[in-house]
Amino acid sequence: MTAPVKYNAKKFFDVFNGLLKGIEGMNAAMTDVGDPREVCMIEVMKVFEKYLRDLFAAVESGKRILFHCGLLSPEIFLAFENVHPYAMEIPFVIHSFLDPEHANEFIDIAEGLGMPPDVCCLDKGFLGFSLQEVNPPADVIITPTTPCDSLICGHQVLEKVIDAPFLFLEVPYWQDERGVDLLSHHIWKVIRSVEEVCHTRLDWDRCRQNVILANEALESFIEENEMRKLIPCPHPGKLGTIQQILNYAAAGTSEARDVSRFIVEDSKRLAAEGRGAVANERARMTWYYPDPLHDLGLHDWLEDEYSSITVMTMFGHATQTLIDPSTPESIVRGWAWKMLNTAMTRQLRGAYESFMDDLMWVMKGWSVDAAVVPLVIPCKHAQALHGFVRKACRELNVPVLFVEYDPLDPRPVPMEEVRNKVSEFMETQVLPLK
What we know:
Blueprint: H1 9-33, H2 39-61, E1 64-68, E2 83-87, H3 90-98, H4 100-113, H5 121-131, E3 140-144, H6 149-161, E4 166-169, H7 177-197, H8 204-227, H9 239-250, H10 254-272, E5 283-287, H11 298-306, E6 308-313, H12 328-340, H13 345-348, H14 353-365, E7 370-376, H15 386-396, E8 400-405, H16 415-430
Parallel strand pairs: 1-2, 1-3, 3-4, 5-6, 5-7, 7-8
Helix pairs in contact: 1-2, 1-3, 2-9, 2-10, 3-4, 4-5, 5-6, 7-12, 8-10, 14-15
């Protein structure tokens, strides 16, 4: 095992300034093209720009940096005095959709250390970031024991690589009151540990304000989900996933709240004008597992080539719950419920019914004509579901495609191959039935 990595200021600012310039360039390109489908994407990416600038400012001012798994939204972490939360996998995700080939280098570095090829690239990408010393300085790292063995394996390796305390949130198998009691207990332990390690305190008044902002953003996200039931669907297929990723990084900020409001208001405006991302929808689809983040244009391609709209993705499905901001106890318990209902944690940590109920909810509620369920290579825990998915889709008379790829690494299955399979599915099973 390699020696613990150190913070390298030059590498950090070089790589993260590159990410910032990449986002700025992406926004400029989308603005120049003038595709109305990109209006909300541009606003979301502006918040990512601010996220990176705030991280620079926190590092330069000497704030303690609290790394947290991207599946944990940061509204509580934002309330620690002189502490800045860092959603540790998000920059690699950004890197993947900006420059997949360069992102691959970080995956290869992790595999060079000995990480198996079938471990999730999200974990390998972050490990590669760490080994190359491009992350900000870590003072404490918080991660849940969910939703999969791959994440748990990856974070155990990270614990040996990064010279900082790791705090693990024990996440229960069952979604019940006893499970929330357990998770709440561990959240309180984590809060006390952060206060001790970072020589700080959690400001509950500030936390309450963060929770209110996060609730308002989530309410807009839920309302946007409802707007996607309309025919035509107002917004493009890729937007929901990107909005969810933003909430992992910035829930509890006014910027995330404001952009969520902007999105739903834009949706209402389009609906009032009778406009949608696809003018004449031929098919309404769900893509219910992680999107290929190295190919954000996939859903645009479906819209352009087949006049078909992805009305719901798994990460675009607003399944999280609101938090009661009244007291510290209600905040902790509400945050526990919210984390148990986060995408993937909700559907894949426990019994198969959690995934199936949500998939069938989407297919019925959003008038879905066809389902794509990706066979994500590292997600062995999800593969036992496929028989249940086939049965449910037969009962609902919804064609289903299982297509293999890696959401963060285009090399195992090139996107040309994925698109060819989707094309065949659309042309032989979906559109002939419409």
